Amino acid sequence: MIRRSIAVTAAAVAVLATAACGEPQTRGDAGDSESSAEPVTLEEVQEAGTLVVGTEGTYPPFTYHEGGSGELTGYDVDVAEAVGEELGVDVQFEETQWDALLSGLTAGRFDMLANQVTITEERREDYTFSEPYTYSNGVIVTRSDDDSITAFEDLEGTTTAQSLTSNWYGMAEEAGAEIEPVEGWAQSVDLLEQGRVDATINDRLSYLNYQEEENNTNIAIAVQTEEQSRAAMAFPKGSGSLADAVDEALAALAEDGTLTELSEKYFDGDYTTSEAATAAGAEEGSGD
Hints:
Elements: H1 10-18, H2 42-48, E1 50-55, E2 64-65, E3 72-73, H3 75-87, E4 90-95, H4 98-106, E5 112-118, H5 121-124, E6 127-129, E7 134-143, E8 159-162, H6 167-174, E9 178-181, H7 185-193, E10 200-203, H8 204-214, E11 219-236, H9 240-255, H10 258-267, H11 274-285
Parallel strand pairs: 1-4, 1-5, 8-9
Antiparallel strand pairs: 2-3, 5-11, 6-11, 7-10, 7-11
Helix pairs in contact: 1-6, 3-9, 3-10
């Protein structure tokens, strides 16, 4: 149950607005993780016949394996595959931990990321983004018996569990929290239940999907942002022709209803536009 939904502080809003396998195929000499990859063009992808997509594979309902070890699936996986079909190319997924996705993109390991990458002004300096395909609110999750956190200001002096390169990490740090590094949502929940951290900030859709599966009464949403995060496909900086083509593909998928169908499949609501996400959240909240 959502105990309180409030606007984030000005600082937290700023962070949200400006801030989760083998050797994968590359388009050439990628260099090390500190190098800058050459832009990937639509022509290169079409000539190769394959779009190499970096994804986490451990972040339900966006990108995960059925039963933990089954086929790769999820909302982002399905959207990326639909984009590939629009472009007329195969999609090859390369899985790695969240904290290695952006550095892998910089190093040229992937043509594109499909992993709920939030658009921020800081990231725009280093990467090219598509138009958003998911809109969602952030939430602070605490133990259900803890009423001490009712605003982002209350995070000061607390300990939160966060992936180090996520925009949620930046929000927690800006609020004055100590950060316990984790690899993903499941580890955050474990630490929270064990009392080793006070809270975790994450995507509301991830929390809702988790609760649908687990019905964990030990944790609850303490605070929800009114600002929405915007998730998009990410590309090496300067990959304008590929990003433009993906934008056209996403527009076609929105026009024919595919994006809405995929959103409703995984979230029981349409979170593909800001207006639809606001409406879906309001409808869902009325049932709390």
